[in-house]
Amino acid sequence: MQSLWNDKKAQDFQDDQLQLRAYSSRLLGENDQLILHGGGNTSIKVSESDIYGEQRDVLYIKGSGHDLKTIEVDGFTPVDLKYVKKLATLEKLSDSEMITQMKLSMLNPNSPLPSVETILHALIPFKFVDHTHSDAVVTITNTEGSVEKLREIYGDDVLVLDYTMPGFILSKYVYEKTLELDWQKTKAIILLHHGIFTFHDEASVSYQNMIDLVTKAEDYIKEKGCFDVDTSSSFKSDPALLDLAKMRKMAALKMGESCILKFKDDPLSTSFSAKEDVASIATKGPVTPDHVIQTKRIPAILGKNWEEDFANYIKDYQQYFERNQSADLVCLDPSPRFAIWKNTGVVVMAENHRAAKAISNIADHTMKSICWGQSLGGWNTLGEKEIFDLEYWELEQAKLKRIKSVGQLQGKVAVVSGSASGIGLSCTKKLLNEGACVVGFDIDPKIKSCVDSPNYLGICVDLTVTEEIKNALAQCIKNFGGIDILVSNAGIFPKSAPIKDLSDELWEKSVSINLSSHFKLLRETIPYLEHGMSPCVVLMGSKNVPAPGPGAASYSAAKAALTQLARVAALELGEKGIRVNTVHPNAVYDTAIWTDEVLNARAKHYGLTVEEYKKNNVLKSEVTSSGVANLVFQLTTDNFSNTTGAQIPIDGGNDRVI
Fold first, then answer.
1. What is the dihedral of CA 230, 287, 311, 404, to 10 degrees?
2. Sheet of 536-540: strands edge to edge?
């Protein structure tokens, strides 16, 4: 493991020890072999003057909800060190009372709640304390004869302690086990199945001890010849896309909310899924119980009859709850968070894309650690009851509540065509802001980068070519698992020409893009919409449908036919619960086709200023692409759950339409 410590950068923080603490914490957080998605914690002990000018010993510890990868000084919570340290001398302290005492110890009420391991950090008599969930170290603790292995690796430099439930129980246990410990001869504490603590009065030494000790664990694994996980049995998988859509819906129904599904066919995922003993080795438990709140205790194992296997996982989880529950607990949703699909790959399921990314990363580290563990004598995790206790620990559940995303469309997947600019781009941004994952289709290559969001996937596709549509939808399904919303927006406004001068080329191009491309996209999307959550389609019509103008025959006819297509689709898809509605915008001037030159020319033609021209409607209001996007968004929500086959104008009130 490479040290990232930079003396020159660290020197910049020598006059601000809390800044130095944040700096070395980020170094740990940047390495996913040490820290995964908010895991681990760090602290620093300092002496500060209070408002009366009196010195007080203060512990700054990582606040709950902060990630070491990005933490700044405001992510650390100051607590009264003497007060917190004394808590370890109590015989008993309930979880709720511990949190109360943590709040009472806080010296800044505006800081985040301090880590549940605050007392433990207070007990360690060094200025800097670093705690990580190192893959290599924790993997070794999850093998047969782990204590002997750790003694072989570290000798007497490290204190090895049994696993104990986090919180006050763990702090009390460490307190009792270290009463006679010679701290000066101890470089670290390793908690079996949990992680490693290093400490020192110098930030650089505490950090370097972490790197050195983890490197020793990695070297041990290398000596056994199993550090580089064998993925030679990997293959390129091609699962049935409809199976992924069905699986996503099954998961969502059990979660009680829409969800994202991500299919993983990388070498690690496929080779792991092909292991003959995968059902045995993958269902012993997580690398560390800390992962359970994100991944559940074990993944689902799916075979050829995956639907039956999925249902059996649900039953097994409910039985797991019944075996371990106490009277005051309520069973969480029983859906798996990831599944090993035998000889196919790995499937991740989560309430949003951020959670899916976290679960995907944890799954990768879990598979790697299991391979290491098997080669080191056998993967041997904590028992079911210990993992259950952490999964249903009120303090862990509180973390989940804090990181819940907001947005009416969380877990929904939308496809928006013609989304590289104009109305399509506005629709994409609006749906993203409301929590949806959005896949943008456009022939313009900038579609791939026109939005910067982890919830966005832009695909360059010619929507007049069926095969390209199919390939684009396949990418959508593999990335997000299904489709709930289709906003069919792609279109062009051909050069104005009277019918007698309208060429075959202009006519056919308008029909191809403004009608046929929508038909092809709708046709290919329907099978996935049938397995969507509250599925709906919004087709982008035009004011020209109810009120056409001269010189726009090819455009008006294509949009009118598109509207008729939408009406038929509403009739056909209603029994599947798929709503189909049409929006008729007009005079949306903040789009690419309305340049300043064109606007000035049109305003001059009508004897109006540009501002008057933009508001030349009954309401005297300007219609914008974001306004159209807001209407489209509303049509995707439950506000319109009983509306289908509708045609809705958004034109500020056009007298001819009215």
1. -120
2. 456-460, 437-442, 413-417, 485-488, 536-540, 579-585, 647-650
Q: In terms of C-beta density within 10 A (0-12 exposed, 13-18 middle, 19 or more buried), how is residue 239 classed? A: middle
- Best CA proximity match to 71, nearest among 21, 118, 117, 107: 21
Return the bridge partners of 579, or none.
536
pLDDT given at position 28: 97
Are the C-beta atoms of residues 443 and 402 closer than 8 Å to each other? no
Distances (CA, A) of 360 to 270, 407, 641: 14, 22, 33
Q: For residue 398, what pLDDT band results from cuts at 50, 70 and 90? A: low
* Superfamily of structural domain 241-402: Class II aldolase/adducin N-terminal domain (3.40.225.10)
CA-closest candidate to residue 59, choices 108, 131, 15: 108
Q: How many CB atoms lie within 10 A of CB 399?
A: 16
User: CA–CA separation, 11 vs 373, rounded Å?
Assistant: 40
In the chain, the amino acid numbered 84 is V
pLDDT digits (tens, 9 = 90+) for 498-545: 999 999 999 999 999 999 999 999 999 999 999 999 999 999 999 999
Q: What pairing do the DSSP bridges indicate for beta strands 260-264 and 345-350?
A: antiparallel
What span, in angstroms and rounded, lies between the C-alpha atoms of 561 and 547?
A: 14
Q: How far is CA 394 from CA 36, 268, 340, in A?
A: 21, 34, 29
For residue 110, the tally of other CB atoms under 10 A from its CB is 7
Look-up of token digits 């004869």: 145
Note the CATH architecture for domain 413-588+623-650: 3-Layer(aba) Sandwich (3.40)
β-bridge partners, 106: 79
| Confidence (pLDDT) at 403 | 55
Buried (b) or exposed (e) across 266-296, using 16+ Cβ within 10 A?
Answer: eebbbbbbbbeebeebbbbbbbbbbbbbbbb
CB 189 within 8 A of CB 174: yes
Strands (E), 382-455: 413-417, 437-442
Maximum alpha-carbon separation in the chain: 100
Domains of the chain, residue spans: 7-223, 241-402, 413-588+623-650
Residues in the chain: 658
**Amino acid (one-letter) located at 332:** L
